[in-house]
Amino acid sequence: MSPDTQAPKVVFEGKYQRMVVRGTWEYSERTHAGGLAAIIIAVTPEDTVLFVEQFRIPLQARTIEMPAGLVGDIDAGESIEVSAVRELEEETGWTADHAEVLMIGPTSSGASSEKIAFVRATGLRKVGEGGGDASEDITVHEIPRARAAAWLVEKMGQGYELDAKLWAGLWMIEHHLDGTPRG
């Protein structure tokens, strides 16, 4: 019997993830509604890109990421767009008038069933300080769009871990999904 036809066996289940064995494969699944996360691509009216910095326990390092969060972890019926705006506000103190799902795809298809939705937030306005919820210690960075890629390279050189999805997000700021420039 091939691994894809064998029944999955849950070997551990926590609040947000479970570990599954299917044949010779071991992988994790998100336990919340849909197993989906959203990464928010947000450029302020001042033409700055919003990034967040936080310590990530699995890496034992500080990371630079775009704002992101689980879809449906608070309300299972919450849409991707509503989740994205909620996470944007919670993490950065900025809210958005509009959120548009650009694409959805796997985050690490060999290790997890989780998928990520890239969401463009527009009509941004500052409504608070951000910094995350009580369990998070998030630093918000507002970096001029024209310097964003260079700033990320500098942070990498300083020893920060950079989420690889940052580069896709920066590309999506400048391009439509068909590759044509925005603007």
Overview of the structural elements:
It is built from three helices and eleven strands. The chain is an alpha+beta fold and 183 residues long. It has two domains: 31 residues, no CATH class; 141 residues, Nucleoside Triphosphate Pyrophosphohydrolase, CATH 3.90.79.10. The radius of gyration is 17 Å and the shape is globular.
Mean pLDDT equals 92
Helix proportion range: 10-25%
Q: Tally the helices: what do you get?
A: 3
Strand content: 35-45%
The CATH homologous superfamily name of the largest domain equals: Nucleoside Triphosphate Pyrophosphohydrolase
Cα radius of gyration in angstroms? 17 Å
Give the strand order of the largest sheet, numbering strands 1, 2, ... along the chain.
7-4-9-8
What is the architecture of the largest domain at the second tier of CATH?
Answer: Alpha-Beta Complex
Return residue spans where pLDDT drops below 50 for at least 5 consecutive residues.
none
* Assembly level: single chain
Reading the helices and strands in chain order gives EEEEEEEHEEEHEH
CATH secondary-structure class of the largest domain: Alpha Beta
Distance between the termini: 52 Å
| Helix/strand class | alpha+beta
Query: The CATH topology of the largest domain, please?
Result: Nucleoside Triphosphate Pyrophosphohydrolase
Q: What characteristic shape results from the CA principal axes?
A: globular
Number of domains: 2
Number of strands: 11
Largest sheet: 4 strands, mixed
